[in-house]
Design goal:
By secondary structure, this protein is mainly α. It has 2 domains: about 1-40, no CATH class; about 55-145, no CATH class. The protein contains 6 helices and 3 strands, in the order αααααβββα. The protein has helices at about 10-20, 25-40, 45-65, 65-75, 85-95, 135-145; strands spanning about 100, 110-115, 120. β2 (about 110-115) and β3 (about 120) form a beta hairpin. One of its GO terms (biological process) is DNA replication. It holds the Pfam family HHH_6.
C-alpha cells in the first residue's frame, strides 16, 4: 500500500460498504483516513495481508464456534498476549460454559463436552500448575483401568 495510490483504489469500496451498513459518511471517511495514515508507516503489505487473514479467520471462529476457539487457543499456550485466565473469563462473558480440570474427566488438552444448547469446554490437565505431562498420562492411564 506504500506504492503511490495503492490504497486510494479501495476508498470507494470501503466508504460505500460502510454506508450500506448504516455508518455515517463522516465516520467512514475518518476510518479510511486512519487506515491511509497507518499505511505510510505500517507493516509491509505481505505481512499485513497474511496477518489480516489470520485475524479474520480467528474472529470468525471465535464468533461462530466460541467453545472450540477457546479450547484450541488454550491448547496452544503459551502464546500471545493473554493469560489462560483472561481467555477463560472472556469466553464466559460471551456465554461459553467452562468446566474445571477434573481427574475423572480431563485429558492433557482442553476438550469439548456436549451440552444440549452448545458445547462446554473442559479444561485440560495442562492448565494445572506443577502437573507435568507424564503425571497427566499416569492419571489418564489409572482412570482407564478403574472398575
Amino acid at each position: 500500500w506504500k506504492r503511490k495510490g495503492g490504497l486510494q483504489k479501495y476508498h470507494a469500496k470501503l466508504v460505500d460498504g460502510m454506508l450500506a451498513r448504516g455508518y455515517e459518511r463522516e465516520y467512514a471517511e475518518r476510518v479510511f483516513q486512519q487506515i491511509h495514515g497507518f499505511s505510510e508507516y505500517g507493516f509491509p503489505e505481505s505481512h499485513a495481508a497474511s496477518f489480516a487473514l489470520l485475524v479474520y479467520a480467528s474472529s470468525w471462529i471465535k464468533r461462530h464456534h466460541p467453545a472450540a476457539f477457546l479450547a484450541a487457543i488454550l491448547n496452544s499456550q503459551p502464546m500471545g498476549f493473554y493469560s489462560p485466565s483472561q481467555l477463560v473469563q472472556d469466553a464466559r462473558r460471551h456465554g461459553v460454559t467452562v468446566r474445571p480440570p477434573d481427574v475423572l474427566h480431563s485429558g492433557w488438552d482442553c476438550t469439548l463436552e456436549d451440552l444440549p444448547h452448545a458445547p462446554a469446554v473442559r479444561l485440560g490437565l495442562r492448565l494445572v500448575n506443577g502437573l507435568g505431562k507424564a503425571a497427566a498420562e499416569r492419571i489418564e492411564a489409572a482412570r482407564a483401568e478403574r472398575p
